[in-house]
Write a structure and sequence with these properties.
The strands form two sheets. Strands 2-1-7-4-5 form a five-stranded mixed β-sheet. It is of the alpha+beta class. It starts with a strand and ends in a 6-residue tail after the last strand. It is built from two helices and seven strands, in the order βαββαββββ. The protein has one domain: Ubiquitin-like (UB roll), CATH 3.10.20.30.
Length: 76
């Protein structure tokens, strides 16, 4: 089981802040997004963390990992 967390505008877009995903083989962070959200493309410049460490989207994910997605931060 992979534990997913979505923050800020991603949470609002998806309609939930957490989810769980059963995987049977190693996946990347990007694969996890696509499996969990097949109808929602990953927004450009989204940040990801695995077990509270920022990682690239190509980072491997295994069972029991927590994967968090953060929208790009903008400000003025």
């Amino acid at each position: 089981m992979i534990y997913l967390r979505y923050f800020a505008s991603l949470r609002e877009t998806l309609g939930h802040s957490t989810a769980e995903l059963q995987i049977f083989e190693p996946q990347t962070v990007l694969d996890v997004w696509q499996l969990a959200n097949p109808d929602v493309p990953l927004p450009e410049n989204t940040l990801a963390a695995v077990n509270m460490d920022y990682v690239p989207l190509s980072h491997p994910v295994k069972n029991c990992d927590e994967v968090a997605f953060f929208p790009p931060v903008t400000g003025g």
